[in-house]
Amino acid sequence: MDSNFNTNFFNNDNSNNGPKGPTLNEEDFICAFTDRIRTTVTSHNPDFIVERTDTLKNNGRTLAGITVRDDSKNLSPNIYIEHYYEKYVKGWSLEALSNEFICDYDSIIKNLSFDNINMNEFLDRQMDDKIIMKMTNKSMNVDFSLKHPHLTFNDYLLTFYFVVDSKKSSISTIPIDYRLFNAIGYDSPNELFTIAKKNMQKMYPPRITTLKNVLNLCISERPPFPDDDMPRFYQEDETEKYLNPEPIIDVINPEPSGVMHEFYLLSNCIGLNGATAMFYSDILKRFAKANYGDMIIIPSSIHELILVPMPTEKIPEHVKTLKEIMLDVNSEAVPHDQILGKDVMVYSEIKDELEKLIAL
């Protein structure tokens, strides 16, 4: 059986058929859209199975998706429906959206490399070099943690995934749940952490830049970003400049007005799940050495952290300012499913550890 859909079977007119508004609410649309995809797919490939999926994502958010299962393949992509509903609200017809879905599915199958993955590769530990981790908020992801091996770090949760495909600005993953964890025979979540940390430091090296640089680039490169949809501050690597033992940029020094004037952003080279970069070997130690020692770490989002070099004894002077920053970040700048938390960490250079939390 052909592993790809023949999109020539379908009408590829993706016009929105005029500005008419939606007649279905989101749940009714999901049901109708899934039924339409199922009818379209099985009319040409009777052995394919089309199923609706509801996936628990970060911070308790559940996304509806559609999986087209081809038993000749080991894995099937799960395509989320949210994007199609947004177009439906704007006036796209179900016919046009189903055609787009088929084209999207066909493109995914052609471009992803996971078709060659065999379950034995997981069981024989051949996929260990593809294990990564994600850092999320513990209290907002209790249900997810019940089904997946994890580590906790203060109010943060570390969970683990296999990368089955990776591009410059996106990755496709399979979460490691307890069923997969036990089938493969890992000793503990700590083993997964050790593997993931080593893999991520190699696959997705750290990126450090000033927050000022990020804001300037966002202003100068308002959407669309470069062709690969990744802002340039993740593409260009100036990290070593900020890890140099001799600081190049003046770091936090309260001005007479008490305003702090230099923040840094820590992420990774693709800007995804970059908060985990804080666990990379010696990354905080080297940054602290280059930037006057202790620092505050603000959980900007699951994708990045804000580093604020500052002697520990000066932190109480700036708690109010930090609280305002944290509230602004979580309430205005970060989508709900990307919120990491409200607990600010303090790194001690002398102890080389995250010494305490400030609950703001």
Q: Sheet bearing the most strands, described?
A: 6 strands, antiparallel
**Gross geometry:** globular
Query: Helix/strand-derived class?
Result: alpha+beta
Low-pLDDT ranges: 1-19, 221-235, 245-261
Rg over CA atoms, rounded to whole Å, is 23 Å
Number of strands: 13
N/C terminus separation: 58 Å
One letter per element, helices H and strands E, the order comes to: HEEEHHHEHEEEHHEHHHEHEEHEE
Query: What multimeric state do the chains show?
Result: single chain
Number of helices: 12
- Order of strands, main sheet, comes to 8-9-11-10-12-13
Average of per-residue pLDDT values: 79
**Count of spatially separate domains:** 3
How big a fraction of the residues is strand? 15-25%
How much helicity do the residues have?
25-40%
Write the layout of secondary structure elements.
Elements: H1 26-44, E1 49-56, E2 62-69, E3 78-80, H2 82-89, H3 94-111, H4 119-123, E4 131-137, H5 142-147, E5 150-153, E6 156-166, E7 171-175, H6 178-184, H7 189-203, E8 206-210, H8 211-220, H9 232-235, H10 239-243, E9 264-268, H11 283-290, E10 295-301, E11 304-309, H12 319-333, E12 343-348, E13 353-359
Antiparallel strand pairs: 1-2, 2-3, 4-6, 5-6, 6-7, 8-9, 9-11, 10-11, 10-12, 12-13
Helix pairs in contact: 1-3
Descriptors for this entry?
360 residues, alpha+beta, 3 domains, 6-stranded antiparallel beta sheet, 4-stranded antiparallel beta sheet, 12 helices, 13 strands, 33% helix, disordered N terminus
Describe this structure in words.
The chain has three domains: 7-116, no CATH class; 125-200, no CATH class; 206-359, no CATH class. Helices cover 33% and strands 23% of the residues. It is built from twelve helices and 13 strands. The strands form three sheets. Strands 8-9-11-10-12-13 form a six-stranded antiparallel β-sheet. Strands 4, 5, 6 and 7 form a four-stranded antiparallel β-sheet that branches. 29% of the residues are buried. The model is unreliable at 1-19, 221-235 and 245-261 (pLDDT under 50).
